[in-house]
Specification:
Strand content: 25-35%
CATH class: Alpha Beta
CATH superfamily: Lrp/AsnC effector binding domain/regulation of amino acid metabolism (RAM) domain
Largest sheet: 4 strands, antiparallel
Helix content: 10-25%
Radius of gyration: 15 Å
Length: about 100
């Protein structure tokens, strides 16, 4: 599995629509709106490095409202925490 972190600058008026369209692309596992110099960060997970050439330039970059992208390929994962559990901290089960 190859993981890439894609920094996305988007048309500010279209950030929600851009995020939804990027999230719907096969290979994109998560999209986050963020503060700072970027508008969105997308996590792309694909089987092969060559697949990144399809997902990012042929799909992510062509979403209307995407102004630019910067891609960082992950070499190694140092944690294997459960993201679902991390984002459900405020939820209660059966209470």
């Amino acid at each position: 599995m190859v993981t890439a972190i894609v920094f996305i600058k988007a048309d500010v008026a279209r950030i929600p629509e851009v995020a939804e369209q990027v999230a719907a692309i096969e290979g994109v596992s998560e999209v986050y709106s963020v503060t700072g110099g970027l508008d969105l960060i997308a996590l792309v997970r694909v089987a092969r490095h060559d697949d990144l050439a399809t997902v990012i330039p042929e799909h992510v970059n062509r979403v209307p409202g995407v102004l630019s992208t910067e891609t960082h390929i992950a070499f190694r994962a140092y944690s294997s925490h459960d993201l679902e559990a991390a984002f459900s901290l405020g939820e209660t089960d059966g209470v």
